[in-house]
Design brief:
By secondary structure, this protein is an alpha+beta fold. It has 17 helices and eight strands. It has four domains: 307 residues, ABC transporter transmembrane region fold; 76 residues, Rossmann fold; 32 residues, no CATH class; 93 residues, Pseudouridine synthase (2-Layer Sandwich), CATH 3.30.2350. α4 runs antiparallel to α5. The radius of gyration is 34 Å and the shape is extended.
Length: 553
């Protein structure tokens, strides 16, 4: 019943948490059995006017304490198993994409990758955190209850035990249909996400050609198909839940009937009859809970099929060749097509000498972007020869290729932050002079000097905002703070905090679109930091300094 051995084998740490979860649930069940027997004996004592309240309270209180800690421990184990799964799977997906390189989009759409790494992994979180522990516990619980009730009434225990498998039978009956339906659901979901991302990225082009209306209508049709599949999934889930509820509550009712019959026939005592009545539902509840997790688990299984499809994509032979100083490019008899039926590049022979500037000119669709994609390793599967510095492109490692070959597209992405923040992604140790030199080479230096330069100076808006208390992006409002310029251009400022959020200064400036290059703490409370200490050095506070800190507190 949905035990994917490959999936489980990947989750070494999760298995430990799952086992601990099952053990704790089992101990909670034993405590519950003890409590039920104690309650039954106490109620019988009341009927006979011989109640033993202290003993009953001792057993009941002890059982409740055990159940409380076991339930908390099981919940903690479930959480840890879920967190481990998410971390492991997302790391596996990320590492696979790194190994595939830029060509991964040929095999799987970006939108599908995002959906699998997001919601797909979340579905598997429930599979490991809830379904698997409940699966093993649901196997143990009925057997344990049978052993507990058999000495009381073997007849009743056998009848209840026979009815328990009806729930997993109903689960198996729906599993084949559900697997096919959920596979279709994920297919529609991925297609809808891919269409949405494509339309969003190309919205400007659609507006220019007035094609946004047609794409909007097409996306509405896809959304309607996805809605219909979703409704089928929900209907299937509702129907199966109804069937399992009928079996579970019907089984519990049967237990009550059997208990009453056995008591009337003088085959069980009053305490025994009460135990059967109170424990009959526990025969079915573990399986019923398993059934409630079943639908989410099935969705997780459908997602795992997609994830493994991504993880199993061929990576080709290991690329170890390194590019040297010579980066002359040569193409010989280069053929390439995005599909087998249509070839885009037809036997090209090209030379790009070291240090040269070459322009490829041609009508739209003639293959200019495709040549760039081939040379940067973004697409694979070409025939012929492409060499860089004498090294065959197909043998060059991904890291070496990215270090030496750069594609600057028309729509290069600028990340949130300053110009300096974006430039230092390529050269973290570059000083301002190096950054301005790069901007001079691309003729952007004059433009940026007319704006805010590499950084954003202190403005009156920032000053007022800090004084009023900055509200961060997550909704947290900081205490009022002071900010004053330390030089004429406003790029170096003194910030006075009245709340311990030194690490959040970058976020505070980010609210006003300003970046922070470096932070230096001058003082804490009334204690000025010792300028004679080198980074990493320390000294003991003096009694006077300790007193100043106490006064501030």
């Amino acid at each position: 019943m949905m035990i994917n051995k490959r999936l489980i084998s990947m989750m070494g740490d999760s298995k430990r948490y799952i086992a601990w979860n099952v053990v704790l649930q089992f101990l909670a069940l034993l405590a519950n059995i003890v409590m039920i027997f104690a309650v039954s004996l106490f109620l019988t004592g009341l009927v006979r006017r011989e109640p033993d309240l202290p003993t009953a309270l001792l057993y009941i209180l002890g059982a409740l304490i055990v159940r409380f800690f076991c339930t908390r421990g099981a919940a903690s184990a479930s959480y840890n198993a879920s967190c481990t799964v998410k971390k492991t799977l997302r790391a596996a997906i990320y590492e696979k994409l790194l190994r595939l390189g830029g060509s991964y989009t040929q095999a799987v759409p970006t939108a599908e990758v995002l959906q699998l790494a997001g919601e797909g992994v979340e579905q598997l979180e429930t599979y490991f955190g809830a379904y698997l522990p409940q699966f093993f516990y649901a196997m143990i619980a009925p057997v344990t209850l049978f052993i507990a009730l058999a000495p009381v009434s073997l007849h009743a225990a056998v009848i209840l035990m026979i009815c328990v498998p009806l729930i997993p039978v109903s689960i198996v009956a729906v599993q084949k249909f559900a697997k096919k339906l959920l596979g279709k659901y994920w297919g529609r979901y991925a297609a809808l996400g891919d269409s949405f991302l494509e339309n969003l990225q190309g919205l400007t082009t659609l507006k220019i050609y007035q094609a946004d209306g047609a794409r909007h209508a097409a996306m509405n049709r896809e959304a309607e198909h996805f809605r219909k599949v979703t409704m089928k999934v929900l209907t299937m889930q509702l129907n199966s839940i109804i069937v399992m509820d009928v079996i579970a509550y019907g089984g519990a009712a049967l237990g009550i009937i059997v208990a009453a019959h056995e008591f009337n026939a003088n085959r069980v005592t009053l305490p025994g009859a009460l135990c059967i009545i109170l424990l009959s539902a526990d025969f079915f509840l573990p399986m019923r809970a398993l059934g409630s997790y079943f639908h989410v688990a099935m969705n997780g299984m459908a997602a795992s099929d997609k994830i493994f499809k991504l993880l199993d994509l061929p990576e080709g032979s290991a690329k170890t060749a390194q590019l040297g100083a010579d980066c002359a490019i040569a193409c010989r008899d280069l053929h390439f097509g995005y599909t087998a039926e249509k070839e885009t590049l037809h036997g090209l022979n090209l030379d790009f000498p070291q240090g040269s500037f070459t322009a490829l000119v041609g009508e739209s669709g003639c293959g200019k972007s495709t040549i760039a994609a081939v040379l940067t390793g973004r697409v694979s599967g070409y025939t012929g020869h492409v060499t860089i510095g004498g090294q065959e492109l197909s043998a060059v490692s991904e890291a070496s290729l990215l270090k030496n070959v750069t594609l600057v597209s028309l729509g290069s992405h600028l990340f949130k932050g300053t110009v300096a923040d974006n430039l230092r992604m390529a050269a973290p140790g570059a000083d301002d002079g190096a950054l301005w030199g790069a901007l001079e080479q691309v003729n952007l230096a004059d433009f940026l000097r007319s704006m805010d330069g590499l950084d954003t100076p202190l403005t009156e808006e920032m000053r007022r905002g800090f004084a009023a208390g900055v509200t961060l992006a997550d909704g947290e409002t900081m205490a009022p703070a002071g900010v004053e310029p330390l030089n004429g251009n406003g790029l170096t400022v003194l910030v006075t905090l009245r709340q311990g959020v030194y690490h959040q200064i970058k976020r505070m400036f980010g609210v006003f679109g300003a970046g922070v290059d470096a932070l230096h703490r001058q003082s804490i409370g009334g204690v000025a930091l010792d300028a004679a200490l080198a980074p990493g050095q320390w000294r003991e506070l003096t009694e006077e300094e300790v007193e100043k800190l106490r006064q501030k507190v």
